[in-house]
Design brief:
Radius of gyration: 25 Å
Shape: flat
Number of helices: 9
Bound molecules: protoporphyrin IX containing FE
Largest sheet: none
Strand content: under 5%
Distance between the termini: 19 Å
Order of helices and strands: HHHHHHHHH
Oligomer: single chain
Length: about 270
């Protein structure tokens, strides 16, 4: 049976430059140059990279009928992650991961640095928002059966993203180094230690030895701001590549429409 090929989705009219009209568009003023500057810059890059093909492949996709607000939860999770990344960079400008300075540096950020309390609040509340959104997104993909063939690998990548997001919350909690974060992390690391086989090794790795101390704090900081965000960013890339390649699933209550040409002759 010949394979049916869907036509490529049209480029939005706003992105198509209007053709020049002879006689009308002859006089080109500085304002016209300014208007076209953005487009020319994009063209310049595209001529050298052909990136627009990839961007079109990623952005202008067919979505199934019945796609609804629940399908925005994945992107919402991604924006929560971007918020964490951006606010985290600014917090890192003031944070000092030493046992004697950590608490003071965060006190300074909160009470004295310009917009410090706001940025810290965005990061702190944002972490809860990201955890809530990731669970809602996972529930959506589960209840819509989106984990089934051929999207199993995307589910597995999702599980890794979930574990890494939890690890972000765990490692970030220690950083203010106040009484609550100190003791809560000791409890958390000890719970890890009770895990079968790898448990004791994992808690030793997290502490940076048998004792909880200065090394633990810098280790948590490095894991929190370098290791895990890098892994999450890479995995989100793979996750989105698979979403674009495989397309999203239709809601389970929609019946598949078969093309007339694919239907077997019943006579
Ligand atoms: C940082 C975390 C995550 C981000 C940024 C993210 C992002 C996205 C985005 C943007 C989509 C496109 C459609 C949609 O939003 O529903 C998607 C789809 C999907 N995600 Fe995630 N996701 C994350 C975590 C997870 C988790 C924890 C799971 C499950 C364990 C998961 C499983 C899936 C699956 C199976 C699809 C395909 C859905 C379909 O085909 O309808 N994702 N993800």
């Amino acid at each position: 049976m010949p394979k049916l090929k869907l036509p490529a989705p049209p480029i939005p009219s706003k992105l198509n430059p209007r053709p020049r009209r002879p006689g009308v568009d002859e006089k080109v003023g500085p304002l016209d140059h300014a208007k076209e500057a953005g487009m020319s810059a994009v063209d310049w890059v595209d001529e050298r990279t052909s990136l627009s093909g990839g961007a079109r492949w990623m952005m202008f996709r067919k979505v199934p009928k019945g796609t609804n607000w629940f399908y925005t939860l994945g992107s919402a999770t991604m924006f929560a992650f971007l918020n964490q990344a951006v606010t985290g960079v600014f917090l890192a400008m003031y944070y000092d991961p030493s046992p004697t300075q950590a608490y003071e540096s965060i006190r300074y950020t909160t009470n004295e640095a310009f917009l410090g309390e706001f940025v810290r609040g965005m990061h702190k509340w944002g972490s809860s928002v990201m955890v809530i959104l990731i669970f809602l997104h996972m529930a959506r993909t589960f209840f819509f059966g989106a984990y089934k063939y051929p999207r199993e690998l995307n589910w597995v990548i999702g599980v890794a993203l979930l574990i890494l997001t939890m690890a972000m919350s765990f490692t970030g909690y220690l950083l203010p180094f106040d009484q609550r974060s100190y003791w809560a992390t000791i409890v958390g690391v000890n719970i890890n230690g009770t895990g079968p086989l790898v448990g004791p090794y994992l808690s030793d790795f997290l502490r940076g030895g048998p004792e909880f101390g200065a090394i633990t704090l810098s280790r948590f900081y490095a894991i929190h701001m370098l290791l895990i965000p890098g892994l999450i960013a890479g995995l989100i890339g793979a996750h989105l590549y698979l979403v674009a390649k495989l397309g999203t699933t239709a809601p389970p209550w929609l019946k598949a429409e078969t093309d007339e040409r694919l239907r077997r002759d019943e006579a």
